[in-house]
Amino acid sequence: MALAVLSHIDVRPVEHRVSDAERAERMTNPGFGKVFTEHMVTVRYVEGKGWERGELKPYGPLLLDPAASVLHYGQAIFEGFKAYYQADGSVKTFRPFANAQRFNRSAERLAMPALPEEIFVEAADALIREDRAWVPAAIGESLYLRPLMIATEAALGVRPSKEYLFVLFASPAGAYFSGGVKPVTVWISEDYVRAAPGGTGFAKCAGNYAASLLAQKQAQAEGCDQVVWLDAIHRKYIEEMGGMNIFFVYQEGGRSVVVTPELTGSLLPGVTRLSILELARELGFGAEERKVTVDEWDAALKEGRMTEAFACGTAAVITPIGRVKSKAGEWLVNRGATGPVAEQLREALLNLQHGVTADTHGWMHDVC
Ligand code: COI
Fold first, then answer.
1. Residue 179 pLDDT more than 90?
2. DSSP 49-85
3. What are the strands, taking DSSP E only, across 200-292?
4. CA of 245 to the centre of ligand 1 (A)
5. CA dist list (Å): 343 to 43, 141, 151, 182, 281
6. How does 307-335 read in b/e, with b if 16+ C-beta sit within 10 Å?
7. Is 314 helix (H, G, I), strand (E, B) or coil?
8. pLDDT tens digit sequence for 19-37
9. What distances in angstroms separate CA 123 from CA 34, 45, 98, 290, one per listed residue?
10. Ligand 1 in reach of 243 Cβ (< 6 A)
11. φ and ψ at 185, to 5 degrees?
12. How far is the CA of 74 from the centre of ligand 1 (A)?
C-alpha cells in the first residue's frame, strides 16, 4: 500500500475498505456520535522533544498504561467541528482554526502543551480526504470531527504529564437530539453549578462534562431534556444550557435582538455562538452580549419583551427551548414552539456551511 506523506502526517490507510453497501447502511440515520469512520490520526508529544510526526491509520482502540495520568488526574481536552458536503460536490470544514485556537486555550488551562494550529487542521484535512465517502450529503448532516488530547505518561505524582497523545477521529452525524429539531424542556439547576470564576469553565475539558452529568440526571428526573446552568456566585445569571451556549430573543423598537450571556471566564466561548452573533447582525437583528437573570427570563416573557430562547453548539447547531422548569415553577417560551428567529438563524448558518449561500466571512476551509 502506497504511503502518502503530508507535511506532518504519514498516511497508512486500511488494507480493505468497508463496502459501499455496508457504509450506506451505517450512514442511514446516523444520529450523533454512534458511527465512526475507518481511520483516525494520532500524534504523540514528549516533553523535551515536542510533537512527533503524526500517523493516519485504521480506526481502533488506544493502548494506555493503567498509570497514564489522564486516568487519574484528568488532563483531557477535546474539540468538535464539522465537515460539510457542499452544493458543488466539494467538502469544506467550518472555522477549523477557531477550534484549533480554542483547543490550545483549553490545553493551556490544563497545563498541557499547545498543538500547532497547522497540525490540528492538517490532521483533519488528511482524515476527511481519506474518509471522504463518509461525509453525508444531506443538508443538516455532516461529518463531525472529534480532536482530543490526553496525558499518557505513566506517573502517579500529581503534576503535569510529560507525555501526551493527540487523537482525531470522525463520525457521520445527523440530528444531535433524538427528537430532531424540536423545542426542548430545560431544568434550571439550583443544586449544582457547572463552573466557577477561576475554574475551567472556558476550557473544553472532559472534567466539565463529567461534573455536569448528575445535574443532567436530575433534569431528566424532573421530566426535562437539559440543564440550564446559573453562575456559581449569585446563582441568578444564566450561563449555558447543557454543553451549549444560550440565546434569548427580545423585541425592542420594532426589531428582534438576540442576547447571549457575556463571556465571564466560566462560559465556553462557542464558535457557533460567535458565528450567530455575526449572522444575526447581517440578517438585520440586534445582537448583544450581556448578563441575563432567571427572573428577567420569566418577566420578559410575561411582558412580551422576549419572544424566543434557543441554545447553540456545533453538534446540534440551534435547538429551540420550549419550556423552562425550576423548583419555583415553570413557564412556556413562544407557546412551546420553535420561533422564527431561531429558524432563520439556523437556516442561514446551515446554508452557509453547505455552500448554498456565499461564504462572505472566509469561514469555510477547503478540504477536498
Ligand atoms: C456542542 O454543542 O457541539 C457540544 O459541545 C456538545 C458536545 C460535547 C457533544
1. no
2. TEE--EEEEE--PPP--TTBTHHHH--EEE--EEEEE
3. 226-230, 238-241, 245-252, 255-260, 286-289
4. 10
5. 40, 17, 41, 11, 15
6. bbbbbbbbbbbbbbbbbbbbeeebeebbe
7. coil
8. 999 999 999 988 899 999 9
9. 21, 15, 15, 36
10. yes
11. -105, 135
12. 19
| Mutation choice for ligand 1 from 177, 314, 346, 349, CB with most ligand atoms inside 8 A | 314
Number of helices followed by number of strands (H, E) in the chain: 9, 20
Instruction: Report d(CA 115, CA 113) in Å as an integer.
Output: 6
pLDDT in tens, 66-115: 999 999 999 999 999 999 999 899 999 999 999 999 999 999 999 999 99
**pLDDT band, very low/low/confident/very high, at 318 (cuts 50, 70, 90):** very high
The secondary element (H helix, E strand) that includes residue 4 is: strand 4-5
> What is the spatial distance between Cα 135 and Cα 124, in angstroms, rounded to a whole number?
13
* DSSP-assigned letter for residue 205: B
Ligand 1 center to residue 274 CA distance, Å? 15
In the chain the domains, ranked by start, together with CATH numbers, are 4-173 (3.30.470.10), 184-353 (3.20.10.10)
Q: Judge if the beta carbon of residue 315 lies within 6 A of ligand 1.
A: yes
Classify burial at 24, counting beta carbons within 10 Å of its beta carbon; exposed 0-12, middle 13-18, buried 19 or more: exposed
**Residue bearing the CA closest to ligand 1, atom 9:** 315
Q: Give per-residue pLDDT as tens, 347-365.
A: 999 999 999 999 999 999 9
* Spatial contact of 226 and 186, defined as CB atoms under 8 Å apart: yes
Determine the distance separating the centroid of ligand 1 and the alpha carbon of 80, expressed in angstroms: 7
Please state, as a whole number, how many other Cβ atoms lie within 10 Å of the Cβ of residue 1: 8
Q: How far is Cα 66 from Cα 167, in angstroms, rounded to an integer?
A: 18
**DSSP conformational letter for 224:** -
Q: Is 287 in the pocket of ligand 1 (CB under 6 A)?
A: no
CA distance 341 to 332: 17
pLDDT at position 316: 87
